[in-house]
Amino acid sequence: MRIEKNRGMGVDEGILRVCEKLGLYYFSIDIDKKELSFGKEGRILDNNLNREEVDKIINLLRGKRVLEGEIARLNIDNEEKLFVITAFKKKGHIFGIAEKIERIAKAYSVFKDIFLTDKLTGLFSSNAYNLLLEEVRQEEIESKDRIIRLFIGRSDIKPPFFLVMMDISMLKEVNDIYGHGMGDLLLKRFGQELRSIIRRTDLAFRIGGDEFLALLRVTDIDKALRIAERIGNRFYSLVEELGVETHNGLPETGLNMGLVEGKSTDKESLKKQIETADKLMYISKKRYKDQWDYKQEISIDKELEKRAKIVVTPFYSIAFLE
What is the 3-state secondary structure (H, E, C) of 217-232? Predict the structure, then answer.
């Protein structure tokens, strides 16, 4: 086996097997001697890794058992590249795996297109939304910020931020009157408009058939409210452009939004904040439909309604907490 050829490196056999299977680089650092061995696919590679880089890896693991996803510039096989490193400490050595960052970026791009992107709207999909709330073992990924950065491909998210839950009302009526092609076009175009309004550092998800969530990196309610109003006005322009504004004198469809401040990115807090945004969205939806006397019962949180501020226009509504 190729593994036999690498025993001289002192590299953990479990790491060797993983790297052989996946074609990854593997390495071993003797902490006392500060000597590094590097290999790939059964051969020990020449490396010009300088002492500073070895010290950097050792220092990063100081006081830790595991190092995950650290980026370092390494000179391997006389080629200097950016590598992503994962490593752990064991019996006076650091054992790890590494891969060129461009290969990881390419793999992530394919993964994102297949698994994380909603095909109709181009927004993040329900899979990405579920991943945002996924439980992750502490020793694998240190915080929810890390999973957002690793899988969603955005900067770390730190409070304060704002969540906007959105629902396109009466999409079924649009489908019934104009056909499902029009309904799909409305969803697709709304996704495009939403992406054009929010910043690159914000997140936008299609989490259901007609439900969307945006995570806005803004610091106060006034800024978040202005963005929500822009989204609502753009929705009005869109339905006007598509010719589905009114039917029998009533709006054919409307956009209902719930806006809440995000104060934490840990799993349970994030879930509660999204639930509150969802409840506010239903409060705004009920108030929106009440103005047109739509005969539809909508269950809402009465106590939350007492605290909510509500903006209602003919084509969108927003409920929020000050």
Answer: CCCCHHHHHHHHHHHH
